[in-house]
Automatic annotation (TrEMBL):
<dbReference type="InterPro" id="IPR028579">
    <property type="entry name" value="Thym_Pase_Put"/>
</dbReference>
<dbReference type="GO" id="GO:0006213">
    <property type="term" value="P:pyrimidine nucleoside metabolic process"/>
</dbReference>
<dbReference type="InterPro" id="IPR035902">
    <property type="entry name" value="Nuc_phospho_transferase"/>
</dbReference>
<dbReference type="InterPro" id="IPR017872">
    <property type="entry name" value="Pyrmidine_PPase_CS"/>
</dbReference>
<dbReference type="InterPro" id="IPR000312">
    <property type="entry name" value="Glycosyl_Trfase_fam3"/>
</dbReference>
<dbReference type="InterPro" id="IPR036566">
    <property type="entry name" value="PYNP-like_C_sf"/>
</dbReference>
<dbReference type="InterPro" id="IPR013102">
    <property type="entry name" value="PYNP_C"/>
</dbReference>
<feature type="domain" description="Pyrimidine nucleoside phosphorylase C-terminal">
    <location>
        <begin position="430"/>
        <end position="500"/>
    </location>
</feature>
<dbReference type="InterPro" id="IPR036320">
    <property type="entry name" value="Glycosyl_Trfase_fam3_N_dom_sf"/>
</dbReference>
<dbReference type="Pfam" id="PF07831">
    <property type="entry name" value="PYNP_C"/>
</dbReference>
<keyword id="KW-0328">Glycosyltransferase</keyword>
<dbReference type="InterPro" id="IPR000053">
    <property type="entry name" value="Thymidine/pyrmidine_PPase"/>
</dbReference>
<protein>
    <recommendedName>
        <fullName>Putative thymidine phosphorylase</fullName>
        <ecNumber>2.4.2.4</ecNumber>
    </recommendedName>
</protein>
<dbReference type="GO" id="GO:0009032">
    <property type="term" value="F:thymidine phosphorylase activity"/>
</dbReference>
<dbReference type="GO" id="GO:0006206">
    <property type="term" value="P:pyrimidine nucleobase metabolic process"/>
</dbReference>
<dbReference type="Pfam" id="PF02885">
    <property type="entry name" value="Glycos_trans_3N"/>
</dbReference>
<dbReference type="InterPro" id="IPR017459">
    <property type="entry name" value="Glycosyl_Trfase_fam3_N_dom"/>
</dbReference>
Amino acid sequence: MDSTSDFLHLHRLGVDTHQEPVVYMRRDCHVCHAEGFNAQSRIKIMTDHHSIIATLNIVDSEIISHQQAGLSETAWRLLHAQEGEVATFGHAKPVESTAFVRGKLFGKLLSDESAYSIVQDIREGRYSDIQLAAYITACAGQGLNVNEVIAITKAMVATGKRFQWSGQEVFDKHCVGGLPGYRTTPIVVAIASACGLIMPKTSSRAITSPAGTADTMEVMTPVTLSFEHMREVVEQHGACLAWGGSVNLSPTDDVVIRVERALDIDSEGQLVASVLSKKIAAGATQVLIDIPIGPTAKIRTQEAAAHLQKLMVATGEALGIKVHAITSDGTQPVGRGIGPVLEARDVLTVLRCEPEAPTDLAERSLVLAGALLELAHKAQPGEGFKLAQKTLWSGKALDKFMAICESQGGFTEPELAAQQHTITASQHGIISYIDNRFIARLARLAGAPEVKAAGVEMHVRLGDAVEVGQPLFTLHANAPGELAYALDFLQLHPEAVRIEEEYL
């Protein structure tokens, strides 16, 4: 190859860069020198048929030759590359919308136009992870007012696909999160659709939690559905349980979520935009929002819940959907399992009406399903819970759930992790405090949600009386190293569950 040539041969390096497209070049590569590329440069890669924008990493080793450009797995997939294929390279055009992000960081409000420009550039892959982090930081906390949230939500809907369901009332529900193990959605969808409601449910993967609904459902059935496949499932069964990122509904959401997860940030305004953009894109006309409140939940006070509720309702109204918000107890985990497999097992025990099913998970699911049935006029006010309970106990909800799974690609029974370690009480007394955030972090350290079977299995609830040696919770991990990592952290932070001596 002539050293003055302006092209390189593509080589698949097999590097997982977690959805960010990355290209690797030798520091002494002739293209690097000719184009003036530096580490972290944003580069346009062009083949005869496709082009992408990627972040450059500089290599000082022999893993690639002077004649090659290495691609991460994400870059390889997006470019539809072939081994040895020829590509040319150039500087990506400056991303003009980052000026709006800088303005927001210094207090300038986002307009409909600036919000759309930012979201569109994110959608087109023009933002690096560093630029995405700046955008997320600018929106963090309560950094977005209601008009900005509406603008971002509109933009997120406009840049993706959208379902239309022939003028029917379409329902959805969402929990704002913060409670480990809160996996009511599969149960609610099964009950509601068994009663005739239309619920095209799309869910996100975990952001800062040990599992999202999509992570949990993926243990039991495929959730990566095409737009057409999702429509077929809903038309056949009235509902689905899919990952929103796979059907291109509000496609910027999963891009933003990936960086939010790395930053451990889940801001209020972006949360509203994320939730409602997906509901609108899925065709929902009425949405039920559950806001758990507790000292270690995502929402900690009634005042914060009221503010979020107002923001949700106003944003929904501006975009033409009805949002109904309720609050619930957020003082402790829900169910027993925390992590995809463990939560899936809880869901199945409830749907199968097994004696060991967690009563709190069943109760919360019935409350939410009952509220939806009343909104849909399937039950009179105050009678929704009874209809939901009857539907669950009759087996109709389980039948509907299994039918949805089969249509999505089949059902798989969850399997437990190979490594388990039970933490026991060191004193007798009453369970007085459970730290939601700590328990969630412990499950993540054990490997969840990436390792589906990893997590925490709770054996106690607030108010339970325990004796010395009684199990409090069990850590689940697939490898001894992951289990040891979680146990090391637990040793440094022993008060995940607090026991107070009972005085008579």
